[in-house]
Amino acid sequence: MSITSTPTDTSPRNEGFDCNYDDCDTNEPAAHGPVGAYCSKPCQARDRGRRLLALFEHDHRYCATCFRPLKVVDDVPEWRRSSLGPVTERAATGFQSLTEHAERGEVARRRDAYQFETRIGVVCECGNANTREREALLQRANVRAVVRQLYESLETLREEGQHDKRVDLEALIAALRSQVNYGSGLDFEYAVGVAVDGEGDR
């Protein structure tokens, strides 16, 4: 008597497949096969969205939670530049001032697992005191305003040459609305990723 086994959906489809999306928890291609270096289209979209949202985490001019501009940086005037020393002149990039969305206040930074240090820093009007980190609770407080500001700020950064992607506002809203309707929380990385260059949720 011989026994034959048939593969099921739970068996690994591709041993050793390494998805390019860092937070992928499956690391195996979806049923329809991998999408380039990603195991699926959702992972591809999340990675694309993460790259764009990282611009806000690394740009001190913006809040990474509500995406409002917090600072304006003006060029150093030529008359002022001529009075600087040679080292300072090369290092000077501009004078910064706060926008109407920011104010100075106490900012707590984690020093290690047990200690925080407090200093004076920039606080956003959305309530975020660590403007380089995304606070999901604050984002959910006014989703409509956050989405509108995210779109406008991404357009500003594109005009500055920091990225070359076009984000479809309607696709961005639709992706977030479907998440709210299904009660799955707000996945901004995914929503931005599917809204890039008219990719859509497909």
Secondary structure blueprint with pairings:
Elements: H1 41-57, E1 71-74, H2 78-81, H3 86-91, E2 95-98, E3 102-110, E4 116-124, H4 136-141, H5 143-159, H6 169-181, H7 188-195
Antiparallel strand pairs: 1-2, 3-4
Helix pairs in contact: 1-7, 6-7
Characterize the structure shown:
This protein is α+β, with helices and mostly antiparallel strands. It has one domain (41-195). The chain has seven helices and four strands. The strands form two sheets. Strands 1-2 form a two-stranded antiparallel sheet. β3 (102-110) and β4 form a beta hairpin. α1 (41-57) packs across α7.
| Total beta strand runs | 4
Written as H for each helix and E for each strand, in order along the chain, the element string is HEHHEEEHHHH
The class by helix and strand makeup works out as alpha+beta
What is the percentage of strand-forming residues? Answer: 5-15%
Major sheet summary line: 2 strands, antiparallel
Q: What strand line-up does the widest sheet have?
A: 1-2
Q: What is the number of helical segments per DSSP (H or I, 4+ residues)?
A: 7
Termini separation (Å)?
47 Å
The overall average pLDDT, rounded, is 80
DSSP helix fraction: 25-40%
Give the domain tally.
Answer: 1
Rg, rounded, reads: 22 Å
